[in-house]
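Q: Given only this backbone (352 positions), what sequence would you predict?
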């Protein structure tokens, strides 16, 4: 009873979570050239734009499809010749699904009339992919939009985008979103262009499927849905270990406290038993290392140009009373620092 779209989203979410947990760098899928032809025809029938007609890419981020050049019958014969068993998903023959209906009912009839159909659809994908690559190259050219990608969030210079005529700006917005992982139609792209033109810094716009756009520090950011599993708080019951905090990796161990700690470093040393991790809270204050008095953590985020969305997913290390000791990569507090040479809890963080 699950739709194809829902099932596909669940599969890829599971694969990405498993990739992170296992420390893998990429995910390989078994898509082949017959899958590609079906995909292109499905997108034609759904009214897809030129970028969608490129079909599945051989590599899309961490997803790699090494079998795209091969026909299904070639792969089956390869297995049969070597006596390798395989399993066929019964849903592949369930004509209630659009792809299965196209595979079993539509393509055979079209091929009977147009024997070169598969080659022609492959050519459509090839030309569309050339067009898509050209737009991607334009988007990431420094002289155009000043493309950046920080902590998994893509952004472009909003001021540059405002200099283009509407049709070109809309096309660029669609390419920016697509390169970020979001497919935007022309109407949504028009809405996003209007937002980029008039919204104030710190403003946000909800897009489809949990995505959102925000203007921050002069940049238009395309923010993916939050899929992080962030606990309310995290303590350090042992003196050595490793864990995940959303998209962050946290490692800790016993170590001798150094003479100097970096104010904006990704490693910090604490008095054992004195620290825990939680999410940032509006109103948090910190006493910056090497500074004077207390400062709102939000100001530290602003100085480091950390966006509003990223702040919500940023780990904050606090003492037993809830006071902020460390915001990784942003600011270390002058409080809770062990004496040089003393046994300390060293914590290292890394963002995927």
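A: Predicted residues:
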């Amino acid at each position: 009873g699950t739709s194809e779209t829902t099932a596909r989203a669940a599969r890829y979410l599971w694969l990405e979570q498993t990739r992170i947990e296992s420390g893998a760098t990429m995910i390989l899928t078994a898509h082949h050239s017959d899958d590609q032809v079906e995909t292109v025809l499905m997108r034609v029938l759904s009214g897809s734009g030129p970028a969608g007609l490129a079909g599945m890419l051989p590599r899309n981020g961490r997803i790699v499809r090494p079998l795209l050049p091969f026909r299904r019958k070639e792969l089956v014969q390869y297995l049969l010749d070597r006596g390798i068993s395989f399993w066929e998903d019964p849903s592949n023959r369930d004509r209630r699904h659009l792809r299965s209906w196209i595979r079993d009912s539509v393509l055979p009839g079209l091929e009977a009339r147009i024997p070169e159909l598969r080659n022609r659809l492959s050519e459509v994908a090839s030309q569309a992919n050339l067009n898509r690559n050209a737009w991607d190259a334009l988007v990431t050219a420094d002289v155009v939009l000043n493309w950046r990608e920080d902590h998994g969030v893509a952004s472009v210079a909003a001021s540059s985008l405002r200099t283009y005529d509407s049709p070109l700006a809309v096309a660029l917005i669609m390419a920016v979103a697509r390169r970020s992982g979001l497919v935007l139609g022309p109407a949504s792209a028009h809405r996003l262009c209007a937002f980029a033109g008039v919204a104030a810094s710190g403003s946000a716009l909800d897009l489809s499927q949990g995505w959102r756009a925000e203007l921050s520090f002069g940049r238009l950011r395309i923010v993916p849905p939050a899929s992080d599993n962030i606990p309310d708080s995290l303590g350090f019951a042992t003196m050595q270990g490793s864990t995940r905090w959303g998209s962050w990796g946290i490692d800790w161990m016993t170590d001798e406290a150094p003479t100097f700690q970096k104010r904006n470093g990704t490693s910090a040393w604490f008095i054992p038993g004195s620290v825990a991790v939680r999410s940032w809270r509006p109103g948090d204050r910190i006493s910056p290392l090497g500074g004077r008095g207390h400062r709102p953590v939000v100001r530290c985020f602003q100085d480091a140009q950390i966006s509003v969305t990223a702040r919500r997913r940023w780990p904050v290390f606090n003492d037993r009373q809830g006071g902020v000791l460390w915001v990784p990569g942003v600011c270390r507090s002058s409080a809770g620092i062990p004496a040089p040479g003393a046994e300390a809890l060293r914590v290292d963080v890394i963002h995927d």
